[in-house]
Amino acid sequence: MVINLRSDTQTLPTEEMLEAMRNASLGDDVLGEDPTVNKLEKLSAEMLGKEAALLVASGTMGNLCALMSHTHPGDEVILEAESHTYYYEVGGFSALAGLSPRFVQGEHGIMSVDKIKEAIRPGDIHFPHPTLLCIENTHNRGGGTVYPVTLMDEIAQFAHKQGLKVHIDGARIFNASVALGVSVTELVKSADSVMFCLSKGLSAPIGSILAGDKGFVEKARKVRKMVGGGMRQAGIIAAAGIVALEKMVDRLSEDHAYARYIAEELIKVGGLNIDLETVQTNMVYCDTSPLKISADQFANLLKEQGLLVSAVSTDQIRLVTSRHITDKEAGEVIATIKRVIENVL
Ligand code: TLP
């Protein structure tokens, strides 16, 4: 048996999703005529408390469309130093949106208002014009950490006062909402736009949503076409997305509980450094340096034992739980890691 903890992006569609895809009513979405896409966009906008929403091919495309819709080339975008948009999106913010980045160092990805204050510089002939602030909730490289509602609101209020727009990379915003026990609407209410992924813990095979006010989404729809993301009978994708939103949100708490359980059990095993404080949603980051081997080496040893994890830096591996991890797999994960650690020591 192979257990895959590399990412919640590896989740497979449910039977209900496959059935919905088979039966979806379809049309040409570039012309706005796919009823299933229209239904998903309406449902998403309602769930986020925004005026409108747009189906995009991926989280990366959603963030890019947001950046390009809110800014002009040459503007400055404020990003957390380990943010996905900076780290994993192939530099699209600069290559395609033409933006100049200014970084804020967060604590496990979570930026403070004070740090953001320091980053936003007063107008000066030498500086690019800052027009956008991005917040990642949950924060991937921070450990799946969560911004609480009050902090989101404070940051957005401050950014707005400085004349900046606020975009949320909420690839896992439903994980944040479930972890905090607050609605997504409440969590994103002060942001101008939000992107979330259907294809992560929510288990849809493809697709992300970008939401905001009507004017923003109209712009983003055009940008999506420009970057080649105008899809035709996209109802095939949207049908699974509707099931994801209607059926798969509440169960995310199970993924969080398994991540917590695995982290607590691995701490008992010893040999890896794990900061339990960062285990807030469906991720566990483990530092392999006490074992005196690199994250890559450790990941390869686990792979030989049928356990797939991601090495995300020289000394960090990441384990991500999803609906495919239940009691049996969680027990196996702990036993396998324990066995490998005992062999290394
Ligand atoms: N994250 C993936 C990889 O790209 C690292 C993962 O396995 O976690 N924002 C955040 C916060 C993300 O974690 C991701 C994907 C994206 C955006 C991009 O989504 P996709 O993969 O759909 O382009």
- Please report the total strand number as a whole number: 12
Structural class by secondary-structure content? alpha/beta
Shape: globular
H/E order of the elements?
Answer: EHHEHEHHEHEHEHHEEHHHEHEEEH
Question: Which labels suit this protein?
Answer:
15% strand, binds ligand TLP, 2 domains, seven-stranded mixed beta sheet, 345 residues, alpha/beta, Aspartate Aminotransferase, domain 1, 14 helices
How is this structure best described in words?
- With 345 residues, this protein is an alpha/beta fold.
- It has 2 domains: 237 residues, Aspartate Aminotransferase, domain 2 (3-Layer(aba) Sandwich); 94 residues, Aspartate Aminotransferase, domain 1 (Alpha-Beta Complex), CATH 3.90.1150.10.
- Helix content is 43%, strand content 15%.
- The chain is built from 14 helices and 12 strands.
- The strands form 3 sheets. A 7-stranded mixed sheet has the order 2-8-7-6-5-3-4, sandwiched between helices. Strands 9-12-11 form a 3-stranded antiparallel sheet, covered by helices on one side.
- Helix 3 crosses helix 10 and helix 12 packs parallel to helix 14.
- The chain starts with a strand and ends with a helix.
- 49% of the residues are buried.
- Ligand TLP binds next to helix 3.
